[in-house]
Each structure stands twice: as structure tokens, then as C-alpha cells.
Amino acid sequence: MTEEEKQTQQSRENEPQFQGNEEEEEFIDINEGEEVYDDDDVNAQEPEEIDDGDNDMNGEDGDEEHETLEIDMSNNSWTFFDKHTDSVFTIFSHPKLPMVFTGAGDNKGYLWTTHSQPPKFVAEIAGHEESIITGGFTSDGKFLITADMNGLLQVFKSNKSGEKWSKFAELNEVDEILFVTVHPYLPYFAFGAQDGSIWVYQIDEDSKSLVQIMSGFAHTLECNGGVFIPGKDENELTLVSISEDGTVVNWNCFTGAVNYKLQPHDDFKGVESPWVVVKNHGNLVAVGGRDGQLSIINNDTGKIVVSIKTLDNVEDVAELSIEALSWCQSDNINLLAVGLVSGDVLLFDTQQWRLRKNIKVDDAITKLEFVGTTPILVGSSMNGKIYKWDARTGQELYAGVGHNMGVLDFTVLEQGKKLVTAGDEGVSLVFVTE
């Protein structure tokens, strides 16, 4: 065993171990999430420092010359969860309890608390045999949906307190699921597949089953994203989906009819953008392309409001790709945030569609999310950091550090006071930002 392996093993032995629930241990109280944190506690626990293995490079050691490799191991996280053994691809929070789900490349899914230090292990979600990359909770918190790269989708139901989860149903309709989106307030979810298909299901508690509402096959290449458009009542169920083939489709989910379909050459004026991300706000839908194209669609009419080429003069075409979109939900602040592989965070005025700010980050942006109805924007990057900015000025308000690889996903808790990350190295960090 090398010296590096001995140090790593010793580090792991000294770390706190996360245990499963014991019957005598009381589970979480939602009011505990209101706990006030002292500044002295912020750095109380840090994740394991993971060496990159380059310990045999040159520097002075007796007669031998070795060069010391300096690694920035700074960490301002409040606590961490490191039960995963591979990249954590997805993280999302329970709507009512201080608890998150993480899914990873080790084919494991875990539920764990975010209000305790260290986190309490709640449950393991078993049954997946490939990387868990997407999922979500229903708005009432009763159901958890998880999906993997083999096309297996599972639904789990919780008891009233949320500490016990039992398998409700499963699906395996496609070879690979690319995303899951859950309706903002109804018991429906949709998923898109590598073959271009889109599927919508209802979670029916009465029949204790999943009821297929529709399946659509209007895309010819990967269905990369979809969003439910809230209707006037439960009789309306509308979904907009995007594809690698450059099409955008609005579906009536109850009938399976296509309300409109936008084609690359006809509707986008000759631009054939592989769409990779979609977000809606009111009657507007924003779609971002792998080629840097941004288009805004009036969902009521199916007409394109504006199309913008976000960046010019980029040497590497891959840096153009739009990886994240987020609309500011404030009634008084009209902004759309756009994150690119180049590390640019572009803030567009949604009245005149002019670029107001460009925030520069030194690596690819992976996700953006405005905090509630505030102008505070949270963003993560492959540089291993998570940020809070004031989108009105572009001022950096907070930077969370501690990952030694990229942040692939995050979730915002307690109105932005707490951020929880999904790290490429297999660790999740909890940051208390104020």
C-alpha cells in the first residue's frame, strides 16, 4: 500500500459514519429546519480531502528533487454527505422536510437530512442497475421518482413523517431516460428518452398504480427536456418538449394532440439548433441550444418572439452550448439568466431582450436558479464552486468552495440561506450562506 493510500484510508477511518435509521431515534421535525447557525459552526466539518494522485512529482527530498504540487483545499461548507462512491449526478429537495435525494454513478440513491450536522441517513433507494441521473418529488412530498440510464423509472411512497419509503411502482418503457419533470402541483410526471419519445404518467393513489396519460413520438432524435405549462384547472395538462433534432413541440397531454410543432428551417429561419435546455415563465418559453442559440417562444400562439446568438468569436464551438436557463420570478425585475459552457452567465432584459450583464466564471456553468421571487441568482460550475450573485448588478455575494471536481447539480433551501451540491467526485456539500 502506497503512502497516499495509507493516508486516504486513515482519513476515511477518522470521518463520521452515516448510519441508517434506528427505531429509537426520532426522525426530523420540519421546524428543526429553522435552526440558527453560529458562524463558529460553519467550518466545523469538512469532507475528505482527496489527493489527485500526483504525489510522485519532483521536489527536494534528501538528494532527490521533487516538485511540490499545490492543491487548493479550502472549504467553507457547513457539513457534507459522502456515502456515494461515484459522481453525484442529481440532487433535489423534499418540498416540506429538510431532506434531499441524491442519485449517482454508483447506481445508488440516498435520502438524507440537511438540518443536522452531520446529516442523518434516511433511506437507500435500491433497484437501479445504472447511473441515477434524474428524478423529483411530487409537490405534496408523498412520492419520489427516480430514473436511470437504463430506462428504469421507480416511484416510492413515503409515510406521513417521511422517514419510511416503500416502492409504489416502476416502469421500463425505453432504453435510456434523459430527464424527468414533475408537474408543479398535480400528481403527474413526464420523462423524455434517447429515442426522441416523451411520456406522461399520473400517480393514481386509488388504484395504487401509474396510469399512462400519453406517449408522443414527434421528435426524431433525443428528447432532451420538457416543462409542464400550468393550466387554468385540472382539465388542462400541457407540456412543451425539445429535441436534439431542433424541434419544439407543445402537447395536449390528455389527448396526445400536438398543439404546435416548431421546425428548424421553417420556424427558426434556417437555424437548426440542437435544443438542450428549456424553461418557461408565464406564457413565454425559453429554449437554449448546443450551438449557443437562444429562442423565446410565445406559448399561446406558438410564435417565436426573439432569437439571439448568445456568443460570437469563440474558438471552440463546444463552449457555445447553453447549459442552464433561469427566469427571475420577481414582478418588478425582468431578467433571464443564461449559462454557457464557456463560463459566461448572461443576464438578458426580458422586455427589450438586450444583454444587461455578463458574469465571467472560469469554467463551464452547470446550473442556474433564481431564489424565489428575489433577484438573487445561484449558479454552479465545473470549477467546483457554487455562487450567489445579485443579478441586478452582477455582484458576487457568496462563493461556496470545497469540491475538488465540478458541481453537477444543486438545490436551494431556506430561501437561499442554504445550498446543497452534487459533486463530480461523489461528495455533496451543505453551505450556509448567511
TrEMBL record:
<dbReference type="InterPro" id="IPR036322">
    <property type="entry name" value="WD40_repeat_dom_sf"/>
</dbReference>
<dbReference type="InterPro" id="IPR051179">
    <property type="entry name" value="WD_repeat_multifunction"/>
</dbReference>
<keyword id="KW-0853">WD repeat</keyword>
<feature type="compositionally biased region" description="Basic and acidic residues">
    <location>
        <begin position="1"/>
        <end position="15"/>
    </location>
</feature>
<protein>
    <recommendedName>
        <fullName>Anaphase-promoting complex subunit 4 WD40 domain-containing protein</fullName>
    </recommendedName>
</protein>
<feature type="compositionally biased region" description="Acidic residues">
    <location>
        <begin position="21"/>
        <end position="65"/>
    </location>
</feature>
<feature type="region of interest" description="Disordered">
    <location>
        <begin position="1"/>
        <end position="65"/>
    </location>
</feature>
<dbReference type="InterPro" id="IPR001680">
    <property type="entry name" value="WD40_rpt"/>
</dbReference>
<dbReference type="InterPro" id="IPR015943">
    <property type="entry name" value="WD40/YVTN_repeat-like_dom_sf"/>
</dbReference>
<keyword id="KW-0677">Repeat</keyword>
